[in-house]
Write a structure and sequence with these properties.
Layout lengths: L2 E5 L2 E6 L1 E2 L5 E2 L6 H8 L19 H14 L1
Length: about 70
Amino acid sequence: MPSIVCKNGSVQELRLCFHKDYQPRDCLVEGENSVRRNHCPRYVTLPSYKPHAFGNSTEGISNQVNVEHQSYQ
């Protein structure tokens, strides 16, 4: 389960936690969560994500990786 950190009723951080093998894990730690819960509203709305790049922003990255692999073969 993700962890939300709030300050003055506003969401400051959304924490996603993973194991070392990149599998998702529960972020909640007993004691720590009870303090955070008091500062967060019961329901929150997050703004929609609008990427700043046009087109497929990961396309250049995947092409660079493929070029690097080809040069080593």
